[in-house]
Request: fold
Amino acid sequence: MIWPQSVLLVLLVSAKNARSTSFHLSDADKDYLMELDEQLSYNLFEYADKLEEKAQHVQRIVKEIRQPLKAAKGIEEEYLSNPLHSFPLIRHLYEDWGYLEEFMKRPVGQDQKNFLKEKLQELPIYSEVVEATEAIARIQHTYGLTAFEMINGHIEGIQLNSTLTALDCFAIAKYYLKSGKIDAAADWLKNTKHLMSEDNEEVHEVLGLSVREVVMLLARCLTQLGQTDEAFNLLKSQPDLAEKTPDLMDLYMAQPKGSKNLFPTWSKAYSACCRSSHTPNPTRLLCRYNSTSTPFLKIAPLKMEEISLDPYVVVYHDVLAERAIAEVLRLSETKVEAVKVVQSPGTIRRENVRSALGFWLPELGEDINGPNGPLYKHIQNIVRDITGFVIGNEQYYQVLKYEFGGHYSPHCDFFNMSLQITREEGDRIATVLFYLNDAPHGGATVFPDLMVKVPAQKGKVLFWHNLRGETHDFDVKTLHGACPVFHGTKLAMAGWIYEYNQMFLKPTLRQGDRPNAYT
Ligand SMILES: *[C@@H]1O[C@H](CO)[C@@H](O)[C@H](O)[C@H]1NC(C)=O
Ligand SMILES: *[C@@H]1O[C@H](CO)[C@@H](O)[C@H](O)[C@H]1NC(C)=O
Ligand SMILES: *[C@@H]1O[C@H](CO)[C@@H](O)[C@H](O)[C@H]1NC(C)=O
Reply:
């Protein structure tokens, strides 16, 4: 999917507010929700205890009030002829059952019900579930997986522990149904049915899942897919639907076929590049010596891999030292913790619940990591060395963290529009992307138009030009995206280099293909 310009604008412009390009729970949020789930489970246990307490109470009462009845067993007539027996019976019938009705009506586990009701406010909301489901769908489609493979955690040749249950599968199936992706919905419904057994039927019933509903939805999907015989047989095999089968089939057949497909699609080239089956083009490994640069570079030349010459895309290996990476990550982690601390559970937490970790370097506050700090200076020097561009001290870098399903759909980095930043600095002439960890399971950067894939490996820097040579025309072939992460985490740091700083390097600068250039 190529992002519509308006969406792209929001993503790029808002980037500085650290609302990032992927949607994930922070670790702190995840911990919080796990803990909440634990509390709610415990609360349900307590509720069961209260019910049991009452059940035992009821049993003691039954035992007590059945005593006279037991004594009369078999000798009823004789028993009742004794007034000391008939009086208690009349009294008992008149009084006790009224009190017992009151007792039965008395609510049980009210505290636990209240606790649950209160906590419902803090639970994830529908849109969050949709986004989590989208992450599943994105991974399934980018990597071309069946529902069965996902349920078994078999993704791209690696084996993950999977905990997907019938309830999860049903939720995913419903998402696909809503998006109009019927074949995928049918696949997930079949697996839902398969995972349901009689053992958990009464649990599923409470949690909104019944075989009957699954079968009906599946039959509807199969009919839409033209598999009417399968649909018919499926309904027939369900005892409580067998009789209604012809009516249901009529209903399903009458539905319009090929309805709206709202499911987002990605270009085939993007998916193809992301998959492990992609075979990379051979690249040239060069060493770049920069004699005009720092003396350091003379003795330690940079290892450069030429990915593409048009557009210019290169990778530098082993650039950012372990120590610097650790420092960047340490800074971003504490930043994220800080964000979490000021959030109270509830609505405020939700505002940020899905942003990837986004952190801007240098920090605005003045400390050793500010614009004059050694870490920032170190990064600046590296970027100067590898890009050959003029990098001013207004240069910011954004640290990004992608987790399960985290991705960035194919897009170009240039703005091509009039914004404060483009009026002041020009457009983004080039991009540098530092990989801060090894992310072997998804997370590669791909250029679909070039059929190029750059795996995320610690210490590497990817660098490319967004604008063409002397004309500064937009280079649409720089279209690139980040493949969805399906295991672990990807950490990266991006920096965008702007045009006007390069004025003296490239005196031929002209407006290129921007007719009303940013005035
Ligand atoms: C899967 O779970 C088992 C047991 O909980 C654990 O030992 C193993 O490391 C897990 N595997 C992965 C890939 O997470
Ligand atoms: C070497 O680095 C300097 C400054 O960083 C830059 O101006 C110059 O273009 C680079 N030289 C080469 C050959 O890349
Ligand atoms: C830049 O924006 C103009 C005006 O909206 C549009 O016509 C042009 O196609 C855009 N160029 C690129 C490369 O996106």
About this structure: The chain has 21 helices and 14 strands.
